[in-house]
Amino acid sequence: MRMLIASLTLCLPWGAALAQTPQPAVTPKPPAAIYDAELAQAVGADEYGMRRYVLVILKTGPTPMPAGEARSAMFKGHFANINSLAAEGKLALAGPLDGVDGWRGLFVLAVSDIEEAKLLTGTDPVISSGEMVAEYHKYYGSAALMLVNDAHKKVAKKSF
């Protein structure tokens, strides 16, 4: 049977070239051991490199604030809250969304309890004013998200 396949392969226009090209033996290599126990502990990783978070979706609230000084002050407070939570190690990730279906932004909070997440977001001016409402979901994701804030500082020329 092998002889038949080899003969048929040589009959094809590209078969002769394949028959003459030596094929290297493929030996899968195990992944390099790069586990860093100290870093894993620092970011709260479990044995899979994951941790528990609370994902907060910010949606348009019942009392949007009109443009002006009060709205500017509210968002200044919102960004100050984000920076404070990040400095405390409670905020892994934050950012705006496209506004489709009222979805305005998100937080990934480095807490495992929704009640704690509600306490942290309850101080944010966009929530307390009713500009936005928060929806909370438990999330299990990479503990490496905890490294985003420090990395972001290295790539941002400006801050909010």
Short note summarizing the structure:
Keywords: Signal. With 160 residues, this protein is of the alpha+beta class.
- Number of continuous helical runs: 7
The string of secondary-structure elements, in order, is: HHHEHEEHHEH
CATH class reads: Alpha Beta
| Low-confidence runs | 1-11
CATH fold label:
Alpha-Beta Plaits
Distance between the termini: 71 Å
Biggest sheet features: 4 strands, antiparallel
Q: Looking at the structure, what is the overall shape?
A: elongated
The gyration radius over C-alpha positions equals 26 Å
Signal peptide: 1-19
Keywords: Signal
Organism: Roseateles albus
Protein name: YCII-related domain-containing protein
Describe this protein's structure:
InterPro entries: Dimeric_a/b-barrel. This is YCII-related domain-containing protein. Keywords: Signal. Residues 1-19 form the signal peptide. The chain has seven helices and four strands. The chain is α+β, with helices and mostly antiparallel strands and 160 residues long. The chain has one domain: Alpha-Beta Plaits, CATH 3.30.70.1060. Strands 2-3-1-4 form a four-stranded antiparallel β-sheet. Strand 2 (91-96) and strand 3 (103-109) form a beta hairpin.
